[in-house]
Amino acid sequence: MFQKPAVVAICFAFLCGSAGAQDSKTVIANAQKALGDLQSITYSGSAKDVAFQQCGANAADMMCRGTHDPMRPIHNYVRVIELTSLTSRAMGTTNNIGPGGSTTVTPGTFFQQVTPQQADVSQPWANSLELYITPWGFLTGAAANHATVSRHKVEGKNYTVLTWSPTVKAPSGKSYVINGYVNAQNIVERVETWLGENILGDMHILATYTGWKDFGGVMGPAKIVQTRGGWPFFEVDVNAAKANPPDVATLVPPPAPGGSRGGTGGGAPPAPAPLTVTSEKLGDGLYRLTTGPGSYDSVIVEFKDYIMMLEAGQSEARALAYVAETKKLIPNKPIRYVMNTHPHSDHTGGLPVLVAEGATIITQNNNAEFLGKALNTPRTLLNDTLARNPKKAKVEAVAEKRVYSDGTRTVEMYHVAPVPHSNGLMIAYIPSEKILFQGDFSVNPGEPANDHVNALAPILEKLNLDFERYINVHTSATPQTKADVRKAVELRNGGR
Question: Crossing angle of helices 24-34/135-144, nearest 10°?
């Protein structure tokens, strides 16, 4: 189910060619007419979204049950699309998770936009596609970008399919492709494209528009669903729509500074600062790798015939730096395993580099399907380490406990649940040096434990792990101990 839409569409877009009696201009004109030949449209209702690879804050259910489950509700959702200026804005009221490891839900504002500059198809595709995957934006783009037309069947239904490409190229130099599926009533029901993504490779982005009806003078879909890589990403239940509203420019004003979350179509992030890796020797063949303040730390463990890396770093650059340092510290041994503490994007970013090294990913059962399918998706749009050195991703799933040992060195891994942060969290315990390594349970000495650490504490008590050093992926200013964790929990619970 995960790969079927992408496989079908790729066959159509790249192999099947064009067909059908109608030319693209006729198909576009008929579809625009069926939608009302609009200059602008606004629609509203209730929506939900998710921070990619994470669960969204949800007042009714804070416990993450799986990839993108639960999603974050957005109330009073309103979207405006202006086709003359190629602008899109959306706003709603929502909630956010509190800062500092708190699971308290706080009010927030969802705001998303595509500016006319971002809608320029010579600019980064990631910034403009939220406009062009709408039926109205897609047809406008098709009319201006030499669309071709063909026929195709999806889920037993025949469609006339328009295909066009923005002028901007992918990092690999390949053209992006966007397809719009037009039904017998000249309504656009599906729009799909692909975007290069660090974990999901050629990430398939699919938006479906169903339940089309007359909203008092304008045709609109009752339901909008967007998936990315086959996983839930965004949904809208539409209860009202209006064509060419006279107040279109003021319907979705920019939010006040702060308190918002949602794609704003910003420019490319600044170039990361160069990474200088330093190592701390924790024992024979055991090192902590760090880049100082703000670092995501990894621990490397030497076995007789191989190396195990605990966490791969949050980015390709960090993973490459850590792999290079590992080979200096422990030469002539392969990195056979890389342990992933949980599937959030800042803890998976380095995995493609380790896959290219040939390492097997150790992750909790609940993450295995996501990581296995994602990292084995083709990477034709990317020009990263794994795209240049493609290898099949191997995933080894851990249920509740797994022990890795060669008779001399031992690493124990445990699933920690229930905790609100992720249902796929693992910790690693190295008994010989009494070290506990974990991902997102940060302790600040002298401060009460946050909600995540407070949830972890009884699990550690039950496991009865005899650790002394407490190492967090998010680097700590000073070495932390079991006593620091215990004190933080006591402060949180009034000394109990």
Answer: 150
CA atoms within 13 A on the CB side of 179: 27
Tell me what pLDDT residue 98 has.
Answer: 76
Residue 173 structure tokens: 């130099």
Tell me the pairing of strands 410-415 and 426-430.
antiparallel
Sign of the torsion formed by the C-alpha atoms of 67, 69, 73 and 79:
positive
Q: Could you give the CA distance from residue 316 to residue 397 in angstroms, rounded to a whole number?
A: 23
Contact between 113 and 264 (Cβ < 8 Å): yes
CA–CA separation, 216 vs 274, rounded Å?
A: 57
The pLDDT of residue 219 is: 97
How far is Cα of residue 264 from the mean position of the Cα atoms in its chain? 16
Helices (H) and strands (E) in the chain, counts: 10, 26
Q: Which residues contact 461 (CB under 8 A, 6 or more apart)?
A: none
Length of the chain: 496
Dihedral over Cα of 66, 374, 272, 110: its sign: negative
Q: Which residues contact 467 (CB under 8 A, 6 or more apart)?
A: 429, 434, 435, 436, 482
**Residue for token digits 């490459």?**
320
Residue 56 to residue 70: CA distance in whole angstroms = 6
What whole-number distance in Å separates Cα of residue 340 and Cα of residue 336? 13
Is the distance from CB of 456 to CB of 443 less than 8 angstroms? Answer: no
* Coil/strand/helix, residue 373: helix
How many Cβ atoms sit within 10 Å of the Cβ of residue 407?
A: 7
Q: Contact 311/407 with Cβ under 8 angstroms?
A: no
Question: What are the φ and ψ backbone dihedral angles of 227, each rounded to 5 degrees?
Answer: -115, 155
Q: What is the pLDDT of residue 270?
A: 57
| Beta-carbon count within 10 A of 46 CB | 15
Query: Residue 15: its pLDDT value, please?
Result: 39
Task: Write down the pLDDT at residue 96.
Answer: 84
Residue 153's SS3 state is strand
- Does the pTM exceed 0.85? yes
DSSP for 310-331, written as a single string: E---SSHHHHHHHHHHHHHHST
**Residue in the structure block whose two tokens are 């086709």:** 83
Q: Residue 486, class by beta-carbon neighbours within 10 Å (0-12 exposed, 13-18 middle, 19+ buried)?
A: middle
The continuous run of DSSP H or E covering 402 comes out as strand 401-405
Weakly modelled stretches of the chain, pLDDT under 70: 1-21, 52-53, 56-57, 256-273, 495-496
Contacts for 368 with CB less than 8 Å, ≥ 6 apart: 395, 397
Residues 6+ apart with CB under 8 A from 322: 277, 289, 298, 300, 309, 312, 313, 350
Determine the Cα–Cα distance for residues 65 and 16; give it in Å rounded to an integer. 39
Query: At 142, which amino acid appears?
Result: A
Residue that is written with structure tokens 């990317």 in the block: 382
Instruction: Report the alpha-carbon distance of residue 202 to residue 22 in Å, rounded.
Output: 30
